[in-house]
């Protein structure tokens, strides 16, 4: 999971609920659309807070930036029904969010699972988008080792979805060494985010990470500027796999040194600079 480097919004940002024709979504927003608007879609077990450190530098670069909690994620409610959380349903939500942020086309960024959702949105209808960035997101299902971990989590949620505190305690015990490095403030936030996320959302999106087919050739046929951005190491999708995906997409490729699966949180300054440079290039700035 992504761990935000800070939890307080910058002074120039605001939190609110974005109204769309598919419901209301919790967002963080910063900046004015001098050069454009960007929509940031988080990954599995994530939330809008995963992008919190990108808001200020991207706003300073002239962009209106909106990070969203998807349906059933953290501060956006969702039903206790698995049918609500298939990738195509979540893609329709992203399209609705983009329409609500219009009328100009928006730069779409999807982190990890959010990349698969964003890809599905673009394949359904690319017209609301000015570009697509796949951030630490690969061509198909996650790596086999991570599939095994995700299958265990999905099985636990299927059996114990009404005991989210118990599942959280087991997860933290399993990753005790990593958890010990978190501050009390971050530990509290991560737990509260987990408890607020709808179990069915995690079950269905977890299955998607395990089973998603390769749709890169379909995406390559969409005439949209594309960026594949990642850390130097990635446990979900190996970096060489993302390199190959970028070539298949004829996409710009950026690797943020000394980061892993969440360069947006691990080195937000470099990540923001790469995003702004890419977006500028799509408009000839």
Q: Any overview of this molecule?
A:
This protein is of the alpha/beta class and 285 residues long. The chain has a domain at 13-140 and 214-283: Alpha/Beta hydrolase fold, catalytic domain (Rossmann fold). Helices cover 46% and strands 18% of the residues. The protein has 12 helices and 8 strands. The protein has helices spanning 52-60, 87-101, 113-124, 144-160, 164-174, 176-179, 184-196, 199-211, 216-220, 239-249, 263-266, 268-283, and strands spanning 13-20, 23-30, 36-41, 63-68, 106-111, 129-135, 226-231, 252-256. An 8-stranded mixed β-sheet has the order 1-2-4-3-5-6-7-8, with helices on both faces. β3 (36-41), α1 and β4 form a beta-alpha-beta unit. α1 crosses α12. The protein is globular, with a radius of gyration of 17 Å. The mean pLDDT is 97.
What's this entry about, in short?
By secondary structure, this protein is of the alpha/beta class.
Low-confidence spans: pLDDT under 50, at least 5 residues?
none
Q: Rounded to an integer, what's the Rg over CA atoms?
A: 17 Å
CATH fold topology of the domain at 13-140 and 214-283 = Rossmann fold
Strand content: 15-25%
Number of helices: 12
- Specify the biggest β-sheet: 8 strands, mixed
| Helix-and-strand structural type | alpha/beta
What topology, given as strand order, has the largest sheet? 1-2-4-3-5-6-7-8
Fraction in helix: 40-55%
- Topology order in helix (H) and strand (E) letters: EEEHEHEHEHHHHHHEHEHH
Large-scale geometry? globular
Give the termini distance in whole angstroms: 34 Å
* DSSP, total strands: 8
Q: What is the CATH C-level name of the domain at 13-140 and 214-283?
A: Alpha Beta
CATH A-level architecture of the domain at 13-140 and 214-283: 3-Layer(aba) Sandwich
Average pLDDT number? 97
CATH superfamily of the domain at 13-140 and 214-283: Alpha/Beta hydrolase fold, catalytic domain
Question: What is the assembly state of the chains in this entry?
Answer: single chain
Keywords: Hydrolase
Organism: Streptomyces yangpuensis
InterPro entries: AB_hydrolase (IPR050471), AB_hydrolase_1 (IPR000073), AB_hydrolase_fold (IPR029058)
GO molecular function, one term: hydrolase activity
């Amino acid at each position: 999971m992504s761990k935000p480097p800070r939890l307080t919004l910058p002074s120039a940002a605001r939190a609110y609920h974005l109204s769309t024709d598919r419901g209301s979504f919790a967002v963080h927003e910063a900046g004015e659309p001098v050069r454009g608007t960007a929509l940031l879609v988080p990954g599995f077990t994530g939330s809008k807070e995963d992008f919190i450190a990108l808001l200020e530098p991207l706003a300073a670069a002239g962009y209106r930036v909106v990070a969203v909690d998807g349906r059933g994620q953290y501060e956006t409610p969702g039903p206790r029904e698995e049918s609500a959380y298939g990738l195509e349903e979540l893609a329709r939500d992203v399209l609705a969010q983009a329409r609500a942020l219009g009328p100009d086309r928006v730069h779409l960024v999807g982190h990890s699972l959010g990349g698969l959702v964003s890809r599905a949105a673009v394949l359904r209808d690319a017209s609301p988008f000015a570009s697509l960035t796949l951030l630490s997101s690969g061509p198909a299902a996650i790596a086999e080792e991570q599939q095994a971990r995700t299958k265990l989590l999905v099985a636990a949620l299927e059996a114990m979805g009404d005991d989210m505190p118990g599942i959280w305690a087991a997860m933290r015990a399993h990753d005790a060494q990593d958890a010990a490095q978190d501050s009390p403030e971050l530990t509290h936030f991560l737990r509260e985010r987990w408890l607020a996320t709808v179990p069915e959302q995690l079950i269905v999106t977890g299955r998607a990470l395990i089973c998603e087919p390769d749709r890169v050739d379909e995406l390559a046929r969409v005439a949209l500027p594309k960026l594949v951005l990642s850390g130097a190491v990635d446990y979900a999708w190996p970096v060489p796999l993302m390199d190959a995906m970028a070539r298949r997409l004829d996409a710009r490729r950026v690797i943020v040194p000394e980061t892993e699966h969440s360069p947006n949180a691990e080195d937000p300054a470099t990540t923001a600079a790469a995003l702004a440079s890419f977006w500028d290039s799509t408009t000839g700035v």
